[in-house]
Design a protein that fits this description.
Layout lengths: L1 H27 L6 H17 L4 H22 L8 H23 L13 E3 L2 E2 H23 L1 H11 L1 H6 L4 H23 L14 H11 L3 H21 L2 H18 L10
Antiparallel strand pairs: 1-2
Helix pairs in contact: 1-5, 1-8, 1-9, 1-10, 2-3, 2-4, 2-8, 3-8, 5-6, 6-8, 9-10, 9-11, 10-11
């Protein structure tokens, strides 16, 4: 039972990390290599606000907002000018990520930061209430995004823009605004993931970099669907956890890559299900 909870927790953690990345790629066709930078900004601003004496939950909201603000600036100054140029977007967002790492290193140093977890009491099988709360938050975020994209006017507008931008412009939709909001939401999700996972992970300027290999592979497996994302993250996270537990962490990374390549061989369009 404890192993099963470990696997579920690993899957939930990866889903939380990947949500913002998948949203931007799935709805905008933009590979955002600045994702880890947004995560780092989220967690470092959370640490800064929390150390000033503010309640940790408010500090996490501040960290999320700071990542969203940075996302708005990045989209306005850089990404907006590179839509339809995927290679240039990859290089630009990668450069932004490096700039964020250097800025954080200059401001905070390269040493680790600490963020005390709330809700530390053990409630089930040795798991703290905070870890279980993260699983609940992840589930609510996935469900909320599904409802927004599928059943709201904004979701319909976004899907229209992604399907045919010229047609959307012809009916009066401000496509630039739609893309900006989507990118900012993805950045906010990255910042929220960084802030929420801060008490559970080592906080340093390269925060989040170690999970980017399984994160990007999970996005490739998703087939640009939330269902595919959940399944892909679950498979890769569980594979990595089992190999790390019964072999070693190096084999675990290799196993994740092999698993992803094998799945993409049989499901080249991603892990998607369509009604016949």
């Amino acid at each position: 039972m404890h192993l099963a909870l470990d696997l579920i927790t690993a899957a939930g953690t990866l889903i939380l990390i990947v949500l913002g990345l998948a949203l931007i790629l799935g709805l905008m066709d933009v590979v955002n290599l600045a994702h880890t930078g947004f995560m780092a900004v989220g967690v470092y601003l959370t640490v800064t606000v929390w150390q000033s004496g503010v309640n940790i939950w408010l500090a996490m909201l501040a960290g999320t907002a700071s990542a969203a603000l940075l996302g708005a600036v990045v989209e306005w100054l850089v990404v907006r000018r590179l839509y339809g140029r995927p290679l240039d977007t990859i290089l630009a967002t990668w450069g932004i990520s490096l700039m964020v790492v250097q800025a954080i290193s200059w401001a905070y140093g390269r040493g680790p930061q600490t963020l005390n977890a709330p809700l530390v009491e053990k409630v089930w099988l040795g798991y703290s209430a905070y870890r279980l709360m993260i699983l609940l938050v992840t589930a609510l975020l996935v469900f909320g995004l599904y409802l927004i994209v599928r059943f709201t006017e904004w979701g319909l507008i976004v899907r229209m823009v992604m399907a045919n931008e010229q047609l959307a412009q012809g009916v009066g939709i401000n496509t630039t605004r739609v893309r900006q909001i989507t990118f900012v939401l993805g950045a906010a999700l990255a910042g929220a993931a960084g802030a929420l996972l801060g008490p559970l992970q080592s906080i340093n300027p390269n925060y989040g970099v170690t999970v980017m290999v399984p994160a990007f592979l999970a996005v490739l497996l998703s087939g640009k669907t939330l269902a595919g994302l959940v399944v892909g993250c679950s498979i890769l996270a569980m594979t990595q956890t089992l190999f790390a537990l019964y072999a070693n962490p190096i084999y675990a990374v290799v196993a994740v890559i092999v698993m992803a390549v094998a799945l993409l061989r049989f499901f080249p369009e991603g892990l998607v299900w369509r009604r016949s």
